[in-house]
Amino acid sequence: MKKVTLLLIVTTLVIFSACTSTEENVQPNEVTPEIMAKIEALGFNTKDFPVHLHDGNLVVENDIVFRLDQLDFMSSRSQFATEEHYSTDNLVTGLPRTINVYVSTSFPQKYFDAVDAANARYNAENLTLTFQRVGNSNLADISFTPSPWWYRFYGILGSAGFPTAAGDPYNEILLTRAYYDNVTDLGALTTTIAHEMGHCIGFRHTDYMDRSFSCGGATDNEGASDIGANLIPGTPSSPEVGSWMLACSDGTNRPFTSGDVTALNYLY
Questions:
Q1: Residue 102: which of 87, 115, 93 has the closest Cα?
Q2: The overall pTM is greater than 0.90
Q3: I need a surface site. Which of 16, 81, 152, 246 has the fewest CB within 10 A?
């Protein structure tokens, strides 16, 4: 079956809509060669995925976000992954721990349903992390929020970050409603949400060593990483079909595979 990446679909929509909005006729911030060199040193793929910079926020690989001023403070440890599943250096600590997840009321009901389903997927594995949805943003460890307008302008579907050095999950997941409002498959939306939550608790893209596995024509691998690409013992030695943390989505529902379960249980 021929794969069509979500990015290509959204990019087409963005090009059309950008012509009708004066707000979106804004030039992106400059990503200097120095910034690019630092991002590449962290092991992120800059060949197949453009790097975006806006108001001090960097978006790499089209779904990972961090502040520009974090570049010089990332971990100096480095490993090159030769197995599928791997984690960042920073993980969530204080286990066992309950992670409170808040969904902005700006989202329609299906987003709430998908977050509940994603929470249930994680909780069914009896991890030392338990996820629950809360109705008060002040209580949240992770908040789901509509992405800013410039995500749509750049063709970014959503983003999340990695755990903090203090052992807390990344606190915000942004989703682009211009795309996901049109997704009718609740399982597919649940998978996207679980994927971004995976980043928040320390998982990187699982086909690290061979991105062409899920990204089709994208063949540039992520390379050695200073942010952490730590091998998870017991996971497959080659990319696993259907893993929830594959770099590129095929738009289908992807519950946890056996390798995913091994990785989750090893870390948490």
A1: 115
A2: no
A3: 16
